[in-house]
From TrEMBL:
InterPro entries in UniProt: CARKD, Nnr, Ribokinase-like, YjeF_N_dom, YjeF_N_dom_sf
Keywords associated with the record: ATP-binding, Isomerase, Lyase, Metal-binding, Multifunctional enzyme, NAD, NADP, Nucleotide-binding, Potassium
Originating gene: nnrE
Residue span(s) of domain YjeF C-terminal: 205-476
Protein name: Bifunctional NAD(P)H-hydrate repair enzyme
Free-text cofactor note: Binds 1 potassium ion per subunit.
Required co-factors: Mg(2+); K(+)
Record text on subunit structure and interactions: Homotetramer.
UniProt cross-references to NCBIfam families, sorted A to Z: yjeF_cterm, yjeF_nterm
Catalytic activity as recorded in UniProt: (6R)-NADHX = (6S)-NADHX; (6S)-NADPHX + ADP = AMP + phosphate + NADPH + H(+); (6R)-NADPHX = (6S)-NADPHX; (6S)-NADHX + ADP = AMP + phosphate + NADH + H(+)
Record-stated family: In the N-terminal section; belongs to the NnrE/AIBP family. In the C-terminal section; belongs to the NnrD/CARKD family.
One Pfam assignment: Carb_kinase
Gene Ontology biological process: nicotinamide nucleotide metabolic process
Organism of origin: Halosegnis marinus
NADP listed as a keyword: yes
């Protein structure tokens, strides 16, 4: 099953892998023609009713593959108003054929005739609201006629995610949908076929630039703030929490606060005046600090727990106490990770171990990336949290869905890059679901590293990565 939003991500990742939308449209159109041919005989009349988006584009392609049928193409609206270049190019391509292609300038001009088969390609996943004209009149004519109706991707007017039909939606006898089943089609009283349109497997297996689309959707739908993050870290190390906090800012969080032992808080503040640093008594985290930290975590979108805390016994006890009582979302990194498998928590956690830390948590690892991904998936299911396991290929899993990330380079084994990733994951988890946040953060962190390496060769530092994060998170 794939939702329209996921399909858009996969589509953009496919393009980045060298298989652009226009090529997918050619495959979709070909699949539609194959289905139409299976439902008719040579010489039968096939009416292709095309909207001005890519759904219509699919049928404009199909027309070129149906020359042994008596084809009529009805374009709903003027060609100049076709919404996408690739659909327009496929309309223009019909000029080089003998096909009967008609422009329906307004609904009064629409004459369906008496076809044997109607191909309904008015609206696909781009539909919004009840059908407008001329689609409404055309849909009514399609629903009234005696012909069999084959819908492209989804019956026009039906929401492919929910199955809800807008006013005036088409009733289909059959549907050819693309790449994977759609949740909204399952309940329809129509014969649904899934056509493989040649999307490379890697477009789904690996996180790609298409995954950045999730961020634009999040900013459309979110309450308008990009989140507040609390970083709890520091003790034996001061750089780690500072890097995580700066990465969270660069990855889009509005406000980043740091809670660190007093002895290091001032030093952390020295790294950046953009951070709000407040110390707690002593040189390291201990159970006596937990109540105060829980109060500080109240009202934060995400807590990033662990960078630089160290592994003193009382520190790990404090981590366990905190996680036991916390109910929000937290990114857990570094020494704090080993506590996770033992602790009962209502919190939503994203754990970011490297291979060694994963083993310390009780997880297994393997050399082969696909095998490792399967092991990470079952361990994520066992611990009940999202895992982002760092490596030459990162693996991200919530126990159900698993992705891999292959951005990044050997130069990134330098100290501090993990802290940057934890901070970026924290910022993104303010606006995205945990596995999506982890996947986008891993991709962006690696992409930032690749850009720095391309520019300056060796000698990458974690600070370089932080500076490059905004660019890596920008689409296009
Ligand atoms: N990877 C993908 O996502 C692929 C998508 N493909 C096709 O592309 C389709 C999506 O294309 P688009 O995003 O261009 O969207 P659509 O073609 O579904 O619809 C967009 C057009 O419909 C108009 N419209 C929206 N709501 C309307 C309403 N209520 N009444 C009248 N007009 C309305 C819009 O103004 C726009 O011109 C899919 O359904 C599928 O058929 C395929 O080509 C293959 C690959
Ligand atoms: K359709």
């Amino acid at each position: 099953m794939i939702t329209a939003g996921e399909m858009a991500v996969v589509d953009a990742n496919s393009e980045a892998l060298g298989v652009p939308r226009k090529q997918l449209m050619e495959s979709s159109g070909n699949a539609v023609a194959r289905a139409a041919r299976g439902m008719t005989s040579p010489g039968d009349a096939v009416a292709l009713v095309c909207g001005r988006g890519n759904n219509g584009g699919d049928a404009l392609v199909a027309a070129r593959f149906l020359r042994d049928r008596e084809v009529t193409v009805h374009l709903l609206g003027r060609p100049e108003t076709i919404a996408t270049d690739i659909a327009r190019e496929n309309w223009d391509a019909l000029a080089g054929t003998e096909l009967d292609a008609r422009v329906v300038r307004d609904s009064a001009e629409f004459a369906l005739g008496d076809p044997d088969l109607v191909v309904d390609a008015m609206l696909g996943t781009g539909v919004t609201g009840a059908l407008r004209e001329p689609e409404a009149t055309a849909a009514a004519a399609v629903n009234d006629c005696d012909a069999t109706v084959l819908s492209v991707d989804v019956p026009s007017g039906v929401d492919s995610d929910t199955g809800e039909a807008a006013g005036g939606a088409v009733t289909a006898d059959a549907v050819v949908t693309f790449h994977d089943e759609k949740p909204g089609l399952a309940a329809l009283d129509a014969d649904v076929t899934v056509a493989d349109i040649g999307i490379p497997e890697a477009a789904e297996t690996f996180v790609g630039p298409g995954d950045l689309l999730r961020l634009s959707r999040a900013s459309d739908s979110h309450k308008g703030d990009h989140g507040e993050v609390l970083v709890v870290g520091g003790g034996p190390y001061t750089g780690a929490p500072a890097l995580a906090a700066q990465a969270a800012l660069r990855a889009g969080a509005d406000l980043v606060r740091v809670a660190a032992p007093e002895s290091v808080a001032r030093e952390i503040q020295g790294y950046s005046e953009d951070l709000i640093v407040r110390g707690f008594e002593g040189d390291r985290l201990a159970p006596k600090h937990v109540e105060d930290l829980l109060a500080r975590a109240e009202g934060q979108d995400v807590v990033v727990f662990g960078p630089g805390l160290g592994s003193a016994g009382e520190t790990l006890d404090a981590v366990a106490d905190f996680l036991g009582a916390y109910e929000g979302t937290a990114v857990v990194d570094a020494d704090a990770l080993q506590v996770v498998p033992e602790v009962e928590t209502d919190a939503t956690l994203v754990c970011t171990p490297h291979q060694g830390e994963l083993r310390k948590m009780g997880g297994e690892t393997a050399d082969d990336p696909a095998e490792r991904a399967a092991l990470v998936e079952s361990f994520a299911a066992e611990v009940g949290h999202t895992l982002l396991v760092k490596g030459a290929q990162d693996v991200i899993s919530d126990g159900e869905r698993t992705r891999r990330n292959r951005t990044g380079n050997p130069g990134m084994t330098v100290g501090g890059t993990g802290d940057v990733l934890a901070g970026a994951t924290g910022a993104l988890a303010c606006v995205l679901d945990p596995p999506e946040a982890a996947a986008v953060a891993a991709w962006a962190n690696g992409t930032a590293g690749d850009r720095v390496a391309e520019r300056q060769g060796n000698g990458l530092t974690a600070t370089d990565l932080v500076a490059e994060l905004p660019g890596a998170l920008r689409r296009g």
